[in-house]
Design brief:
This protein is about 50% helix and about 10% strand. The protein has about 325 residues and is α/β, with parallel strands linked by helices. It folds into two domains: about 15-120 and about 190-320, Rossmann fold (3-Layer(aba) Sandwich); about 125-190, Histone, subunit A, CATH 1.10.20. Helix 2 links the parallel strand 2 and strand 3 (about 70).
Length: about 325
């Protein structure tokens, strides 16, 4: 009897990770290049929430009918959706999409989602509802400024990484400390990409002045489409600043304006533009930390297609 001594290798699932700063043009590029080949897994931490459509620049109904989208409208805005939740959901979706003969395309702009997906999730404890509730109550009583100062005391590393207006991530860091006695930053993510999934990383980039103009145009469009009405409808349903969904840029500025007595929509619009520009800068700094990432202008469809081909992904193979 002759034994087969050939080494068997398991073929890893492939997925494309497409990120880029806010307003860079991810949606238009995706529609142009991936309409017939992919199913999209949303990696935007605000688009997961129902009712947050205009401020999150959620893809329209027509595009969602043309390209299947996952992880959109899966939580109510008062519910938490953590990076760990995103990783677990995405890990389950990738083989499902591949089994349907389509390419998993993970796209959005939430950097810490991508970090934990590509490098493996943090070992931080899962959210404890009771601890979370107590932390949120304490923040409501003492204020956001207290929470940010307290975070600096218990976890200066996380304090340096988290924006002072990001109450959701501040409260999560405090929650982890209260639950474990250890700072969130001590639960590090691996520095090496995970080996069970073959991620092809693409980041879209534009000239800084061009991106700033696109951000301004996007915010103008949001107000024309009815962002103020969307906010009013959410408030009528009981929305408050501490809801996780209200932490996103385009929503939190309205609550900040109410706190300081500023009611001018023009001022709120400028605050949103400024916050978005700052966020886009932080996004690019974070995205450049991915060693295996390739950078393309959104209009360079041929370049992106060629790069995917080199990485073993031929988009024509996925056409139905």
């Amino acid at each position: 009897m002759r034994l087969n001594t050939e080494k068997r290798t398991t073929r890893k699932n492939k997925a494309v990770v497409l990120f880029g700063p806010t307003a860079v043009g991810k949606t238009a590029m995706t529609e142009a290049l991936f309409s017939s080949s992919a199913e999209i897994i949303n990696a935007d931490s605000v688009q997961v929430y129902r009712g947050l459509d205009i401020g999150s620049a959620k893809p329209d109904k027509e595009l969602r009918e043309r390209i299947p989208h996952h992880l959109l409208d899966i939580r109510d805005p008062w519910e938490q959706y953590t990076a760990g939740d995103f990783v677990r959901d995405t890990e389950a979706l990738i083989p499902e999409i591949i089994s349907r003969g389509k390419l998993p395309l993970i796209t959005g702009g939430t950097a810490y989602y991508f970090r934990q997906l590509v490098y493996g999730p943090s070992k931080a404890p899962q959210s404890d509802p009771l601890v979370r509730e107590n932390v949120n109550k304490e923040i409501e009583e003492k204020g956001a400024s207290w929470a940010y100062s307290y975070l600096e005391l218990i976890d200066p590393v996380s304090h340096s990484r988290i924006n002072e207006n990001d109450i959701y991530r501040i409260s999560r860091a405090i929650e982890v400390y209260r639950a474990s006695g250890k700072p969130l930053s001590s639960f590090s993510v691996s520095s090496s990409p995970r080996e069970d999934i073959d991620f092809v990383l693409i980041c879209l980039v534009r000239d800084r002045s061009e991106l700033k103009e696109r951000i301004r145009l996007r915010v103008d469009q949001m107000f024309r489409e009815g962002l103020y009405g969307e906010i009013r409808a959410l408030m009528e349903k009981g929305a408050v600043a501490s809801w996780p969904g209200m932490q996103g840029i385009g929503y939190r500025e309205f609550f900040e304006a109410m706190e300081c007595g500023e009611a001018s929509l023009g001022t709120i619009k400028e605050d949103i533009i400024k916050s978005t520009e700052q966020y886009a800068k932080r996004q690019m700094t974070f995205f450049r930390s991915f060693s295996s990432c390739r950078f393309f202008h959104p209009d360079d469809l041929d370049g992106i297609r060629s790069y995917l081909s080199v990485e073993g992904i031929c988009l024509d193979d996925f056409r139905s």
